[in-house]
Amino acid sequence: MLSTTLRSGALAAGPTLRRSLATHTPFYEKDCSSITPPYAQLIGKLEYVRELLNNRPLTLAEKILYSHLNDPEKSLSGGGKIRGESYLQLTPQRVAMQDASAQMALLQFMSAGLSQCAVPTSIHCDHLIQAIDGAESDLKRSITSNKEVFDFLESAARKYGIEFWKPGSGIIHQIVLENYAAPGILMLGTDSHTPNAGGLGLLAIGVGGADAVDAMTGTPWELKAPQVVGIHLTGKLSGWATPKDLILHLAGKLTVRGGTGRILEYFGPGVANQSCTGLATVANMGAEVGATTSTFPYTENMRAYLNATGRAPVARAADQAASMGFLNADEGAEYDEVIEINLSELEPTINGPFTPDLATPLSKFGSFVKEQGWKDELSAGLIGSCTNSSYEDMTRVADLAKQAKAAGLVTKVPFLCTPGSEQIRATMERDGITSTLEDVGAVVLANACGPCIGQWKRDDMKDEENAILTSFNRNFKSRNDGNRLTMNFLASPTIVTAMAFSGSLSFNPITDTLTLPSGKPFRFAPPAGQDLPTEGFTQGNTNYYPSPTPEPQPETEIIICADSQRLELLEPFPSHFGNRGLELPPLKVLMRVRGKCTTDHISAAGPWLKYKGHLTNISENLLITAVNDEGGDVNVAFDYDQATGETETDTIPAVAKRFKARNQPWTLVVDDNYGEGSAREHAALQPRFYGCAMIVARSFARIHETNLKKQGVLPLWFADKNDYSRIGSGDVLQTIGLADLIEGRQNAEVKLKVTKRTGEVFEILTKHTMSEDQLKWFRAGSALNFIRSQMS
Predict the structure, then answer these.
(1) Which of 173, 479, 592, 680 is catalytic?
(2) pLDDT averaged over the chain?
(3) Ramachandran angles phi, psi of 434, nearest 5°
(4) 13 by DSSP, 3-state: which?
(5) What is the mean pLDDT of residues 49-63?
(6) Which of 21, 355, 372, 710 could form a disulfide with 783 if both were Cys (CB 3.0 to 4.6 A apart)?
(7) Is residue 680 annotated as a catalytic residue, yes or no?
């Protein structure tokens, strides 16, 4: 039985770093001047911070965060508790944006009036490519259908000196790991799985576009200092167990809320045994437990990966920084909690359906399927995505395919493979991995997100209950194929591949056999893989790649057609206050949202991705898959003030538009962990666009709460979670004490006066996480409004 122990206040020991004898060949050495961290500067600032903190031992996460403080004295003054309490003003080293979120981020950045970005920034075209029938045709079709958006992004990149990775180059997180990530830096990305880069020992944090604009404009970026959870790894993975199984197991322990407001910092002898890309998989799915990010101490395998990807100068600089103690926790550093995991006891794990934290060991999965009464059938297997598309993943999968081919087997269900980058695709093709997979029935898709984010034109199983197995990271209802009845079970690429040959959910490749055409039994041997290619990586089609560190071309014209249905210039949101004081106007409750409400529920992806740059159009999907707690219906809201000819019920966006037309500001009442999932800031922009001024929750997911603050929506927490059920549609809420809070009065409390539709009146107490600066954003109407006011 796997032993996982949780304990508090434990101490960390820093690892010993030794030289690695690499067996791979780097294909070239890049100019790393723009990506090598300024270690001398960071270490110097950290030494100053140590003095402020009385030289107490620091975790690795603290070292990275504190070395990027804009003003250490301001952030760390007071001498009190920092983790979980203080707000840090930080200066990230880099920003990366994917094409769907970059549109809104750039529209906001353009309104700031700057001529170039303050930090190195990149755009990655990966979200808008739909999977239909294969890489070549899918890519061509998507480039044509999204030409307007790609042209906008490329012209903005040229104007502001941003590196532009064209469609076909690959998935943002794989490209960042291969090209930009460096041990010990702090970077931001406009995608919730940005922490993937943490596999190289840095802090990479997923944010909304407005947060990215902070860094791009040189404005200090604010983060509430996270707690730090130490995850102590001992033992060694063996057999079928992979790093994916480590994070699937941990998700089951922590749940989707267990990492909120926390950084997961792995340490111990088990870390050094993992490949760099394996650690990236673990960091990637830290987002599924709500973690701010994940990180690891610098290892020999990280050095080997840097060398293999042409970044030897970064490796040499990191070696020196590590020798000075910068890239691991101090001896005696204290964590807020420690989780013990023995990798030697870990077995393959399958998580789902409909939530990434429902973890079942492979040995028990067959009986779990039977207990639930599900059909013992698999309808498709999908591997790749940003989570699991490394060379190591693909060589392990290819080993299984070779075994199957030798036995005369082909997959029994559709088997789709998504390479993470053009570099991975080209290296797979050169080394025979692609042909090996295709020989057993695989279809290789474009180097893009594809089915993982709903960009999958699936023609079968429409409105039918079915099960798919994927190596993806997220499995909410309707996410992959638009069918709410599709159950997505998350697993390692090797488990997905083996089960694709059986077509059965209950098949256990460790113990079970398949029947060959000859009638003989066949059992897979544990798969073997290679973390780095012996002949080095090959770049593939370099036409997809940007010129490094491009100079801004201010004469470039950015064209947005007046009648465009894809792009729309943003109008600043007005302040909620005007001349009426600093309490919010009376707010009508639009609805009480029941249960899990992710950013997929608030702002669906899939076919809606084409409207990411057009706020008016994408707002038509506001909360369309959310459940109204009053009645239990999906996408139904009540309007008790309907005009003649209007119905009392309508879709949620339709009622929100009615409120906006009446100039009626409104609010939502929501359940626990509201806004879990992706970093999409549209989930905050859309309610704000329709007139939402406040959301009251049992609890919020971190990124979404910050996005609400950025767009001028007040997030309040119920002091008593039972008050959630006391408020309903059509009730009116008024703030009491908000003015005191905004004006900086100590110990100010915000209460809500609730006027029920029946006339009953009562007050409830709320909590908040608003900092001094965030209150300035709220007063101004949005963070961008405040930034503009400071620049003028």
Answers:
(1) 680
(2) 94
(3) -60, -50
(4) coil
(5) 96
(6) 710
(7) yes
Q: Please tell me the total number of residues recorded for the chain in this structure.
A: 792
Tokens 């040959």 belong to residue: 501
Given a cut of 80, whether residue 230 has pLDDT beyond it is yes
Using an 8 Å Cβ cutoff, are 259 and 290 in contact? Answer: yes
Alpha carbon distances (Å) from 754 to 186, 751, 759? 43, 9, 10
pLDDT value at 439 more than 90: yes
| Range with lowest mean pLDDT among 2-16, 510-524, 718-732 | 2-16
CA dist., res. 146 & res. 149, Å (int): 5
Cα–Cα nearest to 655, from 673, 674, 668: 668
**Is the pLDDT confidence value at 24 over 60?**
no
Joined tokens for residue 373: 């009464």
Q: 687 burial class (0-12, 13-18, 19+ CB within 10 angstroms)?
A: buried
Distance CA 53, CA 66 (A): 11
Q: Alpha-carbon distance 157 to 163, whole Å? A: 6
In this structure, what DSSP letter does residue 606 have?
G
Rounded distance between C-alpha atoms, residue 698 and residue 721, angstroms? 5
Helix (H, G, I), strand (E, B) or coil at 110: helix
Specify the DSSP class assigned to residue 557. -
d(CA 591, CA 638): 7
Contact 229, 338 (CB under 8 A): yes
List 24, 83, 127, 702, catalytic entry: 127
Residue 228 three-state SS: strand
Q: Is 678 a catalytic residue?
A: yes
To the query of whether residue 191 is one of the catalytic residues in this protein, the response is yes
For residue 721, which phi and psi values (nearest 5 degrees)? -60, -20
Q: Which of 678, 699, 729, 782 is catalytic?
A: 678
Inter-residue contact 499 to 510 (CB < 8 Å): no
Q: Distance (Å, rounded) from C-alpha 456 to C-alpha 483?
A: 11
Residue 464 to residue 319: CA distance in whole angstroms: 54
State the DSSP code for 720: S
Distances (CA, A) of 139 to 101, 124, 150, 435: 19, 14, 13, 20
Residue 243 burial (10 A CB sphere; 0-12, 13-18, 19+): buried
Put the strands of the sheet holding 163-165 in their side by side order: 163-165, 121-124, 94-98, 186-189, 203-206
Q: Looking at the predicted structure, is the pLDDT value of residue 8 above 50?
A: no
φ, ψ for residue 456, nearest 5 deg: -140, 110
What percent of the chain lies above the pLDDT cut of 90? 88
Q: Which residues pair with 4 in a beta bridge?
A: 341
Catalytic, out of 67, 155, 158, 191: 191
The residue type found at 298 is Y
Average pLDDT over residues 197-217: 96
Q: Which of 387, 361, 368 is nearest to 470 (CA)?
A: 387
